[in-house]
Specification:
The chain contains two helices and 30 strands. The chain is mainly β. The strands form eight sheets. The chain has a four-stranded antiparallel beta sheet, with no helix packed on it.
């Protein structure tokens, strides 16, 4: 009888301890477990993590470019020093200071970069080789220059304007060949197809500008774009597709996708500029930064190019569908800056693999947004 009584007491004690342990778990331990600490069940969605742009540089950036072979990013800071961004950090390639920076143009694979400086008093051009870390001067009195879009067997070539004439320069032997005499001044040069260069007047809302094409083999000159107010075109990839801005269109239709003959393929549907857009490598998607604030009273592109106005941008993706020569795409917002509490004016957009790169004009640093 006594043994039965002892067993009953032991069972009651064990039961009591179990109840106490359970209550301690419910009231003390369980509340400390947050949803982020719980393990998701198979197939259960994890909480979304906001996609926020990440700064890639500590320095203020004048402009940047991408080595197409290695995908490494290079940039000029505001003093003209050249850096390469690596996994270990930023590596200085050239410590030389350059005054009066105006623009840069990388060659096709990004191993060479043409730098325009000395503006506005004495425009000067020089080439920097990122592999040898050396400089090479362009002919004196050059006013504009552009790289060949292809890689000929003779090595890299440039077209350049000098003293009212168009020349071709082969870097390997440093020989120049005159192509044609050009009377008009203050032109910008772009080499878009293997045998065709474009001459562009500087864009302004105050004066209509044009674009002409010159065949460097036949020397045929033809009008590519008639005079239009604020005309800007940025060519991408194989130069068969471009983004065109003009004030000649309606306010809701300032930006168009065009082919190499300047024929419209579709409208972007955003109020922005060509430098604030970039295609992906396949040409199936277009990314654009566009202002979310009212820009009434702003003269585009002049005020933006002179930094008289700054935008507050969100970033959009347009998935492009080719419908009988017409590219159709509706903008989808991929970065809502208000929701992540940042302010950007994104310029010089480039797609580098699964990253969208841009310069934020507010702090002048280079940023990356994951795609």
């Amino acid at each position: 009888m006594k043994s039965i009584f002892k067993i009953s007491i032991i069972i009651l004690i064990i039961a009591g301890l179990s109840i106490v342990g359970y209550l301690a778990w419910i009231y003390l331990v369980a509340p400390r477990i947050t949803p982020s600490e719980e393990t998701a069940l198979p197939g259960e969605a994890q909480p979304a993590i906001p996609n926020v742009p990440v700064p890639l540089t500590a320095n203020k950036v004048f402009d940047y470019w991408i080595n197409k072979k290695t995908k490494e990013v290079h940039y000029l800071d505001e003093n003209g020093q050249i850096y390469k961004i690596t996994k270990e950090g930023e590596q200085v390639l050239s410590s030389q200071n350059i005054a009066g920076l105006n623009h840069i143009k990388p060659n096709g694979d990004g191993t060479l970069v043409l730098v325009g400086f000395g503006y506005p008093a004495t425009p000067t051009f020089a080439i920097f080789n990122t592999l040898t870390k050396s400089w090479q001067a362009m002919p004196a009195n050059t006013t504009s220059a552009a790289w060949s879009p292809s890689a000929p067997t003779g090595g890299p070539r440039l077209a350049y304007l000098r003293n009212g004439r168009l020349y071709l320069l082969t870097l390997a032997d440093q020989k120049s060949k005159e192509i044609i005499k050009i009377d008009q001044k203050d032109l910008e040069l772009e080499w878009v197809l293997p045998d065709v260069v474009y001459l562009k007047e500087r864009p302004s809302i105050q004066l209509a500008s044009s674009i002409w094409s010159i065949n460097i083999n036949t020397k045929e000159v033809r009008s590519l774009a008639k005079p239009e107010s604020g005309l800007l075109v940025r060519w991408f990839g194989d130069s068969k597709t471009g983004i065109k801005f003009t004030n000649s269109l309606s306010k809701e239709n300032l930006l168009q996708i065009v082919n190499l003959d300047n024929q419209p393929l579709g409208s972007v549907g955003l109020i922005t500029l060509p430098s604030k857009c970039a295609f992906n490598a396949l040409g199936t998607a277009l990314y654009c930064a566009a202002t979310k604030t009212e820009i009434s009273g702003v003269s585009l592109p002049d005020d933006y190019l002179k930094r008289a106005v700054y935008f507050q941008d969100d970033i959009y993706q347009l998935s492009l569908i080719d419908l009988g020569g017409q590219l159709i795409g509706l903008p989808t917002k991929i970065l809502d800056t208000e929701s992540v509490k940042i302010v950007i004016d994104a310029d010089q957009l480039e797609v580098n693999s699964k990253q969208l790169l841009f310069i934020n004009r507010y702090d002048k640093k280079l940023y990356s947004l994951a795609l």
